[in-house]
Amino acid sequence: MLKKLSEEQLExxxxxxxxxxxxxxxxxxxxxxxxxxxxxSVGALYKYYGDKDGFFRACLDRSLEALDRTxxxxxxxxxxxxxxxxxxxxxxxxxxREHAGYVRLYCVLAASGGEEARRLAGEIEGVTSRLYxxxxxxxxxxxxxxxxxxxxxxxxxxxxxLMMVQFAGCCDYYRERFRLYCGGTPEEQxxxxxxxxxxxxxxxxxxxxxxxxxxx
Amino acid sequence: MLKKLSEEQLExxxxxxxxxxxxxxxxxxxxxxxxxxxxxSVGALYKYYGDKDGFFRACLDRSLEALDRTxxxxxxxxxxxxxxxxxxxxxxxxxxREHAGYVRLYCVLAASGGEEARRLAGEIEGVTSRLYxxxxxxxxxxxxxxxxxxxxxxxxxxxxxLMMVQFAGCCDYYRERFRLYCGGTPEEQxxxxxxxxxxxxxxxxxxxxxxxxxxx
Amino acid sequence: MLKKLSEEQLExxxxxxxxxxxxxxxxxxxxxxxxxxxxxSVGALYKYYGDKDGFFRACLDRSLEALDRTxxxxxxxxxxxxxxxxxxxxxxxxxxREHAGYVRLYCVLAASGGEEARRLAGEIEGVTSRLYxxxxxxxxxxxxxxxxxxxxxxxxxxxxxLMMVQFAGCCDYYRERFRLYCGGTPEEQxxxxxxxxxxxxxxxxxxxxxxxxxxx
Amino acid sequence: MLKKLSEEQLExxxxxxxxxxxxxxxxxxxxxxxxxxxxxSVGALYKYYGDKDGFFRACLDRSLEALDRTxxxxxxxxxxxxxxxxxxxxxxxxxxREHAGYVRLYCVLAASGGEEARRLAGEIEGVTSRLYxxxxxxxxxxxxxxxxxxxxxxxxxxxxxLMMVQFAGCCDYYRERFRLYCGGTPEEQxxxxxxxxxxxxxxxxxxxxxxxxxxx
DNA sequence: TATGAATGAGATTTCATTCAT
DNA sequence: TATGAATGAAATCTCATTCAT
Lengths: 216, 216, 216, 216
Known about the structure:
The structure is a homotetramer.
Chain A: H1 7-28, H2 31-37, H3 42-49, H4 52-75, H5 81-98, H6 100-111, H7 114-141, H8 151-170, H9 172-182, H10 190-206, H11 209-215
Helix pairs in contact in A: 1-2, 1-4, 1-6, 3-4, 4-5, 4-6, 5-6, 5-8, 5-10, 6-8, 7-8, 8-9
Chain B binds a DNA duplex through residues 1-5, 30-32, 35, 40-44, 46-47, 51-52.
């Protein structure tokens, strides 16, 4: 097959890469296996992406772009914090169901160490962190959200919960862990998970320390 | 048993292994490097642990035992949920500071896929999940904690936040992510992190949905 | 014959080939690089020359033809040995300056081993060797040149010196070697080199062993 | 065979390397082939020499050391130029017969281009060039050698002839070229070659330009 | 028993060559 | 016919594992 690689073939190459890197990590992934899975030659793989690192980066970019698109859909319309949180939770649960490979790759990347990982963190988390912190600060200013916790920390806890819920949707370890805690798979429990997480967050974001003291 | 590896030598082997596996992952880790770091021959390493997977398992066990000991200290005395949460947060923050390698290794393991990861999740998370769920259910029964969320889910969210806070303490990616969200390193902010997380959890675990509706 | 490679394109292909083969040797040369340098497709290169060996051969032929032309100019007019030697030395020094790539290619070829190299030696050196030996034998018969050395050997030594002087002009190793012996580059010293070599050869070709014995 | 590589095995590795590099050049040589020829594993080859370049360098060093030893034997005793030249010619002819691979390797190296080749020229030719030029200058001072040619140039021509005679002894191309000029192999003609070259050099080194003019 | 050099399968990467366009 | 992307064999090099000492 000496035709130029079709768009689909290139897609399938990236998908195969995402899958393999997510499964075995950067070091463990096998370029030959990836090429074979996508039914293209190793030569073509190298022609397009230079080397293993370059190809890994391309797979990662593909994943992050998809995530960005998903978040962009959700955050394009203004909304209050509750509505906002609901939409993000739904969107990320769906993303984790439909693009399991992307999330797995992200999980693997985040677990890898070194300067490279640090640099990527800056690239990947910068936008989200500012978006969340901004929305939360606005909510606090409007009196919708508690004011006794730093908006940055609130954003941090919020994103932590979202990440873990995504990982639970598609990484083997985190899926099993979810089963142990909640019984059943994240898909089966998707609605319940969404609702309970929302309730959890609403309380956490709403009530101040002083109100607890009063109650006690 | 003429000349056997001393206890210290075996310890230093495991420490070197934890470090290397945490840094480079299972596939990327180099057995020679590990042996050299511990000043042990590769032959001895293989004699004691069979092969790379077996040694990885031993490193993991060592990490998990340390974590178990830390949690056991904290949970040995009965206490109400708030006190309990406070103690666990403190203990895990300290653990992540003092045993960075163990936590990193756990992070890497959790990111790895396959049957093996699933099996390990069962082994590792089983105890904790039952412990948390039990304590939370007791709190609900005693009227200390909200009753409108499944205790299993509450436990799940609780552990999620704890894991992420630990990762933030010692994994390169998560450390940098923390810096982006909160500015500064987890060590510098340890006290603040502890307090804010506690406040967050207290609200999340205390107030019911109906109370929010009332307030609005 | 709709669109054929123009004469210039073929020339530039051969020039690029000579350069690349001279620089990296037959095995080290890269067909893609050659085609790119000449702004020709690899496909066309293969269409015209079959394979790498075939193209190498074509580059070599081009080099040898240029050398033949240069020698033909010089040897077309009859002359005595001294005049003859002077012309050849001048011509080859100029050739090595103006066609460095050809000489380098020849040097590389001569260093390569195998049946092929032997066969090429026959092709390349046959004419020159007969030409030199003939001229020298004539000089001996005329009493211009010493008679106590086999003309074949005299021709051999003569050609050896010419080859080395050419290599000194354009091959990195031999250039540097010249600098170590004589200080300066062959271009800077071209006149001196020519004169000294001529003096050297004149004595070597003139005086017989017996004359040395007499002197002593 | 898990014993440490014996001295002989290491020798045979270097010999195999010299042979392969001489035959195919640095780029064309095959590390697997070399290891197989020496009946050792590729792993061991790489353990000892790091990479292909490092091993090439080791092979080259071995060759140069052998050459140095040979020249040292010859130049250890003081002698006049004629005796000196006779000894060197004999020694190098023998060297080229007995250590064909070393000379071939040297020939290949000298034909390779680039910065590396230049650097090696400095290393390799530095000693010889100074030795020759010194001896020749002494001969000129003593009135044994002609004074109308720069000793450096005389040394250069002298070494050129020696190199070519060596190449004629063991490089396929140069051997065939010798046959074309002189008929027969350099071994068959070794004595004659030695004597004729000596006569050639004696005249070249003895008689001044003015003497030729007188004769004419 | 501990050692660590040797092994060699297997990984990444290159590049001569082909052939659909 | 010329093109140059695709091919895949083959090269270099690594490293988990073995086993003679």
